[in-house]
Description:
Layout: E1 10-16, H1 23-35, E2 41-45, H2 53-57, H3 65-69, E3 80-81, E4 87-89, H4 96-99, H5 103-110, E5 122-129, H6 133-140, E6 144-149, H7 153-168, E7 175-182, H8 185-203, E8 208-214, H9 217-224, H10 229-232, H11 237-250, H12 262-273
Parallel strand pairs: 1-5, 1-6, 2-4, 2-5, 6-7, 7-8
Antiparallel strand pairs: 3-4
Amino acid sequence: MMRGSNKTTRILAFASGKGGVGKTLLSLNTAVALARTHLNVVLFDGDMGLANVHVLLGTQPRVTVADVLAGHCQLAQTMFAGPEGIRIIPGGSGIRDLADLPSGEFGRLLQGLQDVQPAPDYLIIDTGAGIGSHVTTLVQLADAIVVVVRDEPASLADAYGLIKVAHTELQCKAFHIVVNDVNDLQRGQQVFTRLQDVAMRFLGLPLTLAGVVPHDNAIADAMRRRDCVVTAFPDSRAAAAIRRLAGELSNMPIAPVDNRFLLDKLGRRREVAMP
Protein backbone atom coordinates (compact mmCIF):
# COMPACT_ATOMS: atom_id res chain seq x y z
CA MET A 1 0.00 0.00 0.00
CA MET A 2 1.36 3.42 -0.94
CA ARG A 3 1.39 6.30 1.51
CA GLY A 4 -1.88 8.25 1.65
CA SER A 5 -3.75 5.70 -0.44
CA ASN A 6 -6.26 2.94 0.22
CA LYS A 7 -5.18 1.11 -2.92
CA THR A 8 -3.30 -2.15 -2.63
CA THR A 9 -0.33 -2.04 -4.96
CA ARG A 10 0.89 -5.43 -6.13
CA ILE A 11 4.67 -5.55 -6.22
CA LEU A 12 6.46 -7.87 -8.65
CA ALA A 13 10.24 -8.19 -8.67
CA PHE A 14 11.77 -9.50 -11.90
CA ALA A 15 15.06 -11.19 -11.04
CA SER A 16 17.57 -13.61 -12.52
CA GLY A 17 20.55 -15.54 -11.29
CA LYS A 18 22.70 -14.36 -14.18
CA GLY A 19 22.61 -11.53 -16.68
CA GLY A 20 21.75 -11.79 -20.34
CA VAL A 21 18.56 -13.84 -19.94
CA GLY A 22 16.13 -11.09 -21.05
CA LYS A 23 14.94 -10.00 -17.60
CA THR A 24 14.78 -6.27 -18.34
CA LEU A 25 13.11 -6.79 -21.70
CA LEU A 26 10.45 -8.98 -20.09
CA SER A 27 9.85 -6.65 -17.15
CA LEU A 28 9.34 -3.73 -19.54
CA ASN A 29 7.08 -5.64 -21.92
CA THR A 30 5.06 -7.15 -19.06
CA ALA A 31 4.54 -3.67 -17.63
CA VAL A 32 3.28 -2.46 -21.00
CA ALA A 33 1.05 -5.54 -21.43
CA LEU A 34 -0.55 -4.88 -18.03
CA ALA A 35 -1.06 -1.21 -18.90
CA ARG A 36 -2.83 -2.21 -22.10
CA THR A 37 -5.49 -3.85 -19.90
CA HIS A 38 -6.21 -0.44 -18.31
CA LEU A 39 -4.07 -0.96 -15.23
CA ASN A 40 -1.92 1.76 -13.69
CA VAL A 41 1.67 0.50 -13.79
CA VAL A 42 4.96 1.88 -12.46
CA LEU A 43 8.22 0.27 -13.56
CA PHE A 44 11.21 0.85 -11.28
CA ASP A 45 14.62 0.16 -12.78
CA GLY A 46 16.30 -1.20 -9.68
CA ASP A 47 19.66 -2.03 -11.24
CA MET A 48 21.49 0.88 -9.68
CA GLY A 49 24.78 0.67 -11.52
CA LEU A 50 23.78 -0.73 -14.91
CA ALA A 51 20.19 0.40 -15.42
CA ASN A 52 19.01 0.03 -19.01
CA VAL A 53 15.21 0.24 -19.22
CA HIS A 54 15.65 3.70 -20.72
CA VAL A 55 18.26 2.31 -23.13
CA LEU A 56 15.75 -0.21 -24.48
CA LEU A 57 13.38 2.68 -25.15
CA GLY A 58 16.02 4.96 -26.64
CA THR A 59 15.36 7.74 -24.12
CA GLN A 60 17.55 9.77 -21.80
CA PRO A 61 15.92 10.54 -18.43
CA ARG A 62 16.07 14.14 -17.29
CA VAL A 63 16.88 13.06 -13.73
CA THR A 64 17.70 9.69 -12.17
CA VAL A 65 18.25 8.16 -8.75
CA ALA A 66 21.69 9.77 -8.78
CA ASP A 67 19.93 13.15 -8.56
CA VAL A 68 17.79 11.85 -5.69
CA LEU A 69 20.86 10.81 -3.73
CA ALA A 70 22.44 14.19 -4.43
CA GLY A 71 19.40 15.87 -2.90
CA HIS A 72 18.26 17.52 -6.12
CA CYS A 73 14.81 15.87 -6.27
CA GLN A 74 12.56 13.20 -4.79
CA LEU A 75 12.37 9.67 -6.18
CA ALA A 76 8.82 10.18 -7.47
CA GLN A 77 10.02 13.24 -9.40
CA THR A 78 12.32 11.11 -11.56
CA MET A 79 9.37 9.35 -13.25
CA PHE A 80 8.88 9.73 -16.96
CA ALA A 81 6.14 8.45 -19.24
CA GLY A 82 6.70 5.22 -21.13
CA PRO A 83 4.69 3.24 -23.69
CA GLU A 84 0.97 2.81 -23.04
CA GLY A 85 1.10 5.25 -20.14
CA ILE A 86 3.38 3.28 -17.84
CA ARG A 87 5.49 5.43 -15.52
CA ILE A 88 9.19 4.63 -15.30
CA ILE A 89 11.53 5.38 -12.42
CA PRO A 90 15.01 5.21 -13.97
CA GLY A 91 18.09 3.84 -12.27
CA GLY A 92 21.60 5.01 -12.93
CA SER A 93 23.71 3.63 -15.75
CA GLY A 94 27.49 3.32 -15.53
CA ILE A 95 27.70 5.02 -12.13
CA ARG A 96 29.93 3.03 -9.77
CA ASP A 97 28.83 4.90 -6.63
CA LEU A 98 25.27 3.73 -7.22
CA ALA A 99 26.33 0.13 -7.71
CA ASP A 100 28.20 0.29 -4.38
CA LEU A 101 25.45 2.14 -2.50
CA PRO A 102 25.33 0.92 1.15
CA SER A 103 22.23 -1.08 2.08
CA GLY A 104 20.98 1.51 4.56
CA GLU A 105 21.18 4.33 2.06
CA PHE A 106 19.56 2.15 -0.60
CA GLY A 107 16.71 1.34 1.78
CA ARG A 108 16.12 5.03 2.46
CA LEU A 109 16.05 5.65 -1.28
CA LEU A 110 13.37 2.99 -1.68
CA GLN A 111 11.21 4.71 0.92
CA GLY A 112 10.47 7.28 -1.77
CA LEU A 113 8.45 4.67 -3.67
CA GLN A 114 5.64 5.32 -1.19
CA ASP A 115 5.29 8.88 -2.45
CA VAL A 116 4.36 7.84 -6.00
CA GLN A 117 0.94 9.31 -6.79
CA PRO A 118 -1.46 8.16 -7.94
CA ALA A 119 -0.64 4.82 -6.36
CA PRO A 120 -0.24 2.19 -9.10
CA ASP A 121 -2.09 -1.07 -9.42
CA TYR A 122 1.28 -2.68 -10.09
CA LEU A 123 4.81 -1.74 -9.14
CA ILE A 124 7.19 -3.80 -11.25
CA ILE A 125 10.79 -3.82 -10.09
CA ASP A 126 13.53 -4.76 -12.54
CA THR A 127 16.33 -5.91 -10.23
CA GLY A 128 19.93 -6.43 -11.12
CA ALA A 129 21.19 -9.94 -11.81
CA GLY A 130 22.63 -12.15 -9.10
CA ILE A 131 22.23 -12.21 -5.32
CA GLY A 132 23.89 -8.95 -4.30
CA SER A 133 22.58 -6.81 -1.45
CA HIS A 134 20.56 -4.52 -3.74
CA VAL A 135 18.80 -7.50 -5.29
CA THR A 136 17.99 -9.13 -1.97
CA THR A 137 16.67 -5.83 -0.63
CA LEU A 138 14.35 -5.42 -3.60
CA VAL A 139 12.99 -8.97 -3.63
CA GLN A 140 11.99 -8.58 0.02
CA LEU A 141 9.51 -5.90 -1.02
CA ALA A 142 7.76 -8.08 -3.59
CA ASP A 143 4.52 -10.02 -3.31
CA ALA A 144 6.05 -12.41 -5.84
CA ILE A 145 9.47 -12.88 -7.39
CA VAL A 146 9.46 -13.46 -11.13
CA VAL A 147 12.61 -15.44 -11.92
CA VAL A 148 13.66 -15.34 -15.57
CA VAL A 149 15.70 -18.27 -16.89
CA ARG A 150 16.97 -19.55 -20.20
CA ASP A 151 17.70 -23.07 -21.35
CA GLU A 152 21.32 -22.93 -20.22
CA PRO A 153 23.02 -24.80 -17.34
CA ALA A 154 24.52 -21.61 -15.90
CA SER A 155 21.17 -19.81 -16.00
CA LEU A 156 19.41 -22.64 -14.18
CA ALA A 157 22.17 -23.08 -11.60
CA ASP A 158 22.26 -19.36 -10.82
CA ALA A 159 18.46 -19.15 -10.73
CA TYR A 160 18.41 -21.91 -8.14
CA GLY A 161 21.05 -20.03 -6.14
CA LEU A 162 18.87 -16.92 -6.16
CA ILE A 163 15.78 -18.88 -5.14
CA LYS A 164 17.69 -20.64 -2.34
CA VAL A 165 18.95 -17.37 -0.85
CA ALA A 166 15.59 -15.63 -1.14
CA HIS A 167 13.75 -18.57 0.41
CA THR A 168 16.11 -19.71 3.16
CA GLU A 169 17.54 -16.35 4.24
CA LEU A 170 14.72 -13.94 3.43
CA GLN A 171 11.69 -16.21 3.87
CA CYS A 172 10.34 -15.42 0.39
CA LYS A 173 7.79 -18.02 -0.69
CA ALA A 174 6.20 -17.04 -4.02
CA PHE A 175 8.44 -17.71 -7.02
CA HIS A 176 7.03 -17.45 -10.53
CA ILE A 177 9.33 -18.83 -13.22
CA VAL A 178 9.51 -17.50 -16.77
CA VAL A 179 11.44 -19.58 -19.30
CA ASN A 180 12.66 -17.22 -22.00
CA ASP A 181 13.90 -17.70 -25.55
CA VAL A 182 13.06 -21.37 -26.14
CA ASN A 183 11.92 -23.06 -29.33
CA ASP A 184 8.52 -24.17 -28.10
CA LEU A 185 6.22 -24.55 -25.10
CA GLN A 186 7.20 -28.18 -24.51
CA ARG A 187 10.88 -27.31 -24.20
CA GLY A 188 10.02 -24.46 -21.83
CA GLN A 189 8.04 -26.81 -19.62
CA GLN A 190 10.97 -29.25 -19.56
CA VAL A 191 13.34 -26.48 -18.45
CA PHE A 192 10.91 -25.47 -15.71
CA THR A 193 10.57 -29.08 -14.54
CA ARG A 194 14.34 -29.36 -14.12
CA LEU A 195 14.40 -26.27 -11.90
CA GLN A 196 11.28 -27.36 -10.03
CA ASP A 197 12.73 -30.80 -9.30
CA VAL A 198 15.85 -29.28 -7.75
CA ALA A 199 13.86 -26.77 -5.67
CA MET A 200 11.60 -29.52 -4.34
CA ARG A 201 14.44 -31.93 -3.66
CA PHE A 202 16.68 -29.55 -1.71
CA LEU A 203 14.28 -26.88 -0.44
CA GLY A 204 10.89 -28.58 -0.42
CA LEU A 205 9.73 -25.52 -2.33
CA PRO A 206 7.10 -25.66 -5.09
CA LEU A 207 7.59 -23.19 -7.91
CA THR A 208 5.02 -21.79 -10.34
CA LEU A 209 5.48 -21.70 -14.10
CA ALA A 210 4.28 -18.23 -15.01
CA GLY A 211 5.10 -18.34 -18.70
CA VAL A 212 7.20 -19.55 -21.60
CA VAL A 213 8.40 -16.97 -24.12
CA PRO A 214 9.53 -18.44 -27.45
CA HIS A 215 12.48 -17.38 -29.52
CA ASP A 216 11.10 -14.78 -31.91
CA ASN A 217 12.93 -12.46 -34.29
CA ALA A 218 10.26 -9.86 -33.58
CA ILE A 219 11.96 -9.20 -30.24
CA ALA A 220 15.23 -8.20 -31.90
CA ASP A 221 13.33 -6.14 -34.46
CA ALA A 222 11.48 -4.28 -31.70
CA MET A 223 14.74 -3.64 -29.83
CA ARG A 224 16.31 -2.15 -32.94
CA ARG A 225 13.30 0.16 -33.18
CA ARG A 226 13.66 1.06 -29.47
CA ASP A 227 10.15 -0.23 -28.96
CA CYS A 228 8.34 -2.97 -27.06
CA VAL A 229 7.45 -6.15 -28.89
CA VAL A 230 3.92 -6.12 -27.43
CA THR A 231 3.24 -2.79 -29.13
CA ALA A 232 5.49 -2.94 -32.20
CA PHE A 233 4.57 -6.52 -33.17
CA PRO A 234 1.39 -7.38 -31.26
CA ASP A 235 0.63 -10.40 -33.47
CA SER A 236 4.02 -12.04 -32.88
CA ARG A 237 4.45 -15.24 -30.87
CA ALA A 238 6.54 -13.42 -28.29
CA ALA A 239 3.94 -10.69 -27.78
CA ALA A 240 1.20 -13.29 -27.32
CA ALA A 241 3.34 -15.14 -24.75
CA ILE A 242 4.06 -11.95 -22.82
CA ARG A 243 0.36 -11.08 -22.74
CA ARG A 244 -0.32 -14.53 -21.29
CA LEU A 245 2.45 -13.96 -18.75
CA ALA A 246 0.88 -10.64 -17.72
CA GLY A 247 -2.46 -12.36 -17.36
CA GLU A 248 -0.99 -15.08 -15.14
CA LEU A 249 0.72 -12.53 -12.91
CA SER A 250 -2.40 -10.38 -12.65
CA ASN A 251 -4.37 -13.40 -11.42
CA MET A 252 -1.91 -14.45 -8.74
CA PRO A 253 -3.09 -14.39 -5.12
CA ILE A 254 -1.52 -11.82 -2.82
CA ALA A 255 -1.01 -11.72 0.91
CA PRO A 256 -3.27 -9.59 3.16
CA VAL A 257 -2.67 -5.84 2.99
CA ASP A 258 0.37 -4.74 4.97
CA ASN A 259 0.03 -1.17 6.16
CA ARG A 260 3.66 -0.83 7.18
CA PHE A 261 5.92 1.48 5.25
CA LEU A 262 8.54 -0.12 3.05
CA LEU A 263 11.45 0.39 5.43
CA ASP A 264 9.43 -1.09 8.29
CA LYS A 265 8.68 -4.09 6.06
CA LEU A 266 12.35 -4.52 5.25
CA GLY A 267 13.33 -4.19 8.90
CA ARG A 268 10.77 -6.74 9.99
CA ARG A 269 11.94 -9.30 7.42
CA ARG A 270 15.58 -8.81 8.37
CA GLU A 271 14.70 -9.51 12.00
CA VAL A 272 12.94 -12.73 10.96
CA ALA A 273 15.96 -13.79 8.91
CA MET A 274 18.40 -13.32 11.80
CA PRO A 275 19.46 -16.47 13.70
